[in-house]
Amino acid sequence: MDSFSVSGSRTVYVTGQHGQIPVTITGTLSVDLDLNIDSYTWAPAFLWVTDQEFLGSQYGFMISPSFGHMSVEVEAQANAAGTMTVGRVTQPFSASSSAKIEDDAIGFGDTMVMPLWLGWRGKHYDAGFNYAMYLPTGYYDKDHIANVGFGFLTNRLQANYYFYPMENKATAFMITPTYEWHSKKIDERVQPGQNFTLEYGISQYFSERLEIGVSAYNQWQISDDHGSAAVNKDTHDSVSGIGGQITYWPIKKKCAVVGKVMQEYNAKDRTEGMFGAVNVMWIF
Questions:
Q1: Looking at the DSSP assignment, which residues form a beta bridge with residue 54?
Q2: Which of 3, 83, 185, 211 has the fewest CB atoms found within 10 Å of its own CB?
Q3: Residue 187 half-sphere exposure, CB side, CA atoms within 13 Å?
Q4: Virtual CA dihedral for 236, 241, 182, 113, nearest 10 degrees?
């Protein structure tokens, strides 16, 4: 929640999942501003690992379209009368009430295309490297506060390494660094800064079917936002998260169900929350 004073008119930028949302408050008052976001995404992923080798590794590629729903709620509570404007909507409020503006969107999201996936396997390790693009195929409107798509193209380089101290590979230590850079946003004079994410964790198989793991991550913006419409250019966002994961194989070596929950903390210049995922994996 952000708290600030207004004398006349003031625009503040609330950082949401898809960028900064401009909120304009008018009046002579002190105001508390709160933002809540709920987002749901369904993203089937198709990975084909070929028989071809490259640099001593397996070669594969992946595509993952998505479909999602997002709802956004911005609420202002103040000690005097005024108005709040978000996007195309203006809502008045009095000293004894609050103003709430809501928006939601549903439809196709962005599409992940991975033309390069490389994998190496050893007695005590698995390693991988991939390059992927997130194409801006999802619904995005700069005047709306709820968007299913991000509104820009993202390029991603990612590596992963799993170390198995025992030959049966029941225990695994994992580390995954990821680097992302982005294009200019659609219909906006803003190019988001680059990001670096480091994920790490440990997992343990308790049987041939059941694996339990603990993981954490840290994400940092490592370069400034660019463009004439960019705000707070010198402020880089960051967030950390920690959580757990359970994997169960109802059909051994064929079908796995993976559940994951992460709690975010220490967010700076962006939203902070909890997210969960359920993945079903089928090996052909």
A1: 57
A2: 3
A3: 9
A4: 180
Contacts of 170 (CB under 8 A, 6+ apart): 164, 204, 205
Helix, strand or coil for residue 96? coil
| Tally of CA atoms within 13 A in the half-sphere of 41 that contains its CB | 20
Task: Specify the DSSP element, H or E, that contains 243.
Answer: strand 238-251
Residue that is written with structure tokens 């225990």 in the block: 171
* pLDDT the model gives residue 110: 95
- Residue 200 tokens read as 């790490």
Tell me 106's DSSP state.
Answer: E
CB-based burial, 259-271: b 16+ in 10 Å, e otherwise: ebebebeebeebe
Contact present, 181 and 160 (Cβ < 8 Å) = no
**CA-based angle 16:91:26, to the nearest 5?**
85
Other Cβ atoms closer than 10 A to 278: 9
Q: Are 248 and 215 in contact (CB under 8 A)?
A: no
Please report the pLDDT score of residue 1 as a whole number: 61
**Non-local CB neighbours of 123 within 8 Å, separated by 6+ positions:** 167
Q: What distances in angstroms separate CA 29 from CA 8, 77, 96, one per listed residue?
A: 9, 10, 12
Bridge partner residues of 234 (DSSP)? none
* Res. 17 pLDDT band, cuts 50 70 90: low
What confidence category does residue 95 fall into, taking pLDDT thresholds of 50, 70 and 90? confident
Nearest residue to 19 (alpha-carbon basis) of 177, 190, 174, 235: 190
Using pLDDT thresholds of 50, 70 and 90, give the confidence band for residue 19. Answer: low
Which of 264, 256, 247 lies closest to 197 in space, CA to CA? 264
- Percent of the chain exceeding pLDDT 70 equals 97
Please give the backbone phi and psi of residue 43, each rounded to the nearest 5 degrees, phi first.
Answer: -140, 90
